[in-house]
């Protein structure tokens, strides 16, 4: 069924821990929290078939989602997630700013705050109705880096059945049992943050008959005792 583990999995549906590369304490001032927004984009019936909600039904990039099955590739799920994110929150520009959708940004159905506790970053969203959800994570800035998170889709209920593991269970998990939550692993990408450099030179004297002057500066930067 859609959203289970394997090639047809909606990205990020298995595993308890967040992926490597998450912002850590000690990287400049410790980050306070990662803000996660959940948007319900489709209903799901007892057979695992999706029906897009009205805000997403006319989106060209979501065509074919309602016919998704176990053969749907992870790459296709990712494309659908990007299309859903563009409708819900907007399009990321080259400079990192977010261009809101023409029809206006949508309100999330639920949100969660992921905080760092004992070296593990985790948070919880509760009270969700069954359906297909877009997971959207706000970028996180530290002194030196910006962390961006890929949007993706996750199904509720879900299961962690693995065709290659004969002992794995295909039981549907609704997340209403604290011992059997639906896990979501974030997918961060880290990029360097660059600041602006302004050089000001004060001239105590200047011969205007030279019609201009050129100056050469040598700049050295040191980070963590490295030149």
Overall pLDDT:
79
- Rg from Cα: 23 Å
Structural class: mainly beta
- How many DSSP E strands? 11
Distance between the termini: 53 Å
Hey, roughly how much beta strand do the residues contain? 15-25%
Identify the overall geometry: elongated
Oligomer: single chain
Largest sheet, if any? 6 strands, antiparallel
Q: Which segments are poorly predicted (pLDDT under 50) over 5 or more consecutive residues?
A: 1-21, 25-30
Helicity, as a percent range: under 10%
N-to-C order of helices and strands:
EEHHEEEEEEEEE
Please, how many helices?
2
How would you sum up this structure, described in words?
The chain is mainly β and 227 residues long. Helix content is 8%, strand content 23%. The strands form three sheets. Strands 1, 2, 5, 6, 7 and 10 form a six-stranded antiparallel sheet that branches. A three-stranded antiparallel sheet has the order 8-9-11, with no helix packed on it. It is built from two helices and eleven strands. The protein is elongated and about 85 Å long. A hairpin with a 2-residue loop joins strand 5 (110-117) and strand 6. The longest helix is centred in the middle third of the chain and has 15 residues, at 74-88.
Please tag this protein with its features.
227 residues; mainly beta; three-stranded antiparallel β-sheet; 2 helices; 8% helix
Topology:
Blueprint: E1 34-44, E2 50-52, H1 54-57, H2 74-88, E3 91-92, E4 98-99, E5 110-117, E6 120-122, E7 131-137, E8 140-141, E9 145-149, E10 152-156, E11 188-192
Antiparallel strand pairs: 1-2, 1-5, 1-7, 3-4, 5-6, 7-10, 8-9, 9-11
């Amino acid at each position: 069924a859609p959203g289970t583990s394997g090639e047809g999995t909606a990205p990020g549906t298995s595993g308890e821990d967040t992926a490597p590369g998450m912002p850590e304490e000690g990287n400049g001032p410790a980050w306070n929290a990662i803000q996660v927004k959940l948007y319900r984009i489709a209903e799901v019936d007892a057979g695992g078939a999706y029906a897009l909600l009205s805000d997403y039904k006319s989106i060209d990039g979501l065509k074919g989602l309602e016919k998704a099955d176990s053969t749907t590739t992870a790459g296709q799920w990712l494309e659908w997630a990007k299309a859903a994110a563009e409708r819900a929150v907007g399009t990321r520009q080259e400079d990192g700013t977010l261009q809101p959708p023409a029809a206006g940004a949508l309100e999330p159905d639920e949100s969660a705050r992921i905080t760092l506790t004992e070296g593990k970053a985790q948070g919880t969203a509760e009270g969700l109705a069954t359906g297909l959800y877009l997971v959207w994570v706000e970028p996180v800035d530290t002194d030196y880096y910006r962390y961006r998170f890929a949007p993706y889709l996750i199904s509720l209920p879900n299961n962690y059945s693995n065709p290659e593991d004969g002992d794995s269970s295909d039981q549907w998990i609704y997340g209403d049992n604290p011992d059997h939550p639906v896990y979501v692993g974030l997918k961060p990408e880290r990029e360097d943050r660059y600041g602006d450099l302004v050089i000001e030179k004060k001239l105590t004297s200047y011969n205007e008959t030279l019609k201009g002057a050129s100056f050469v500066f040598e700049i050295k930067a040191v980070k963590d005792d490295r030149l």
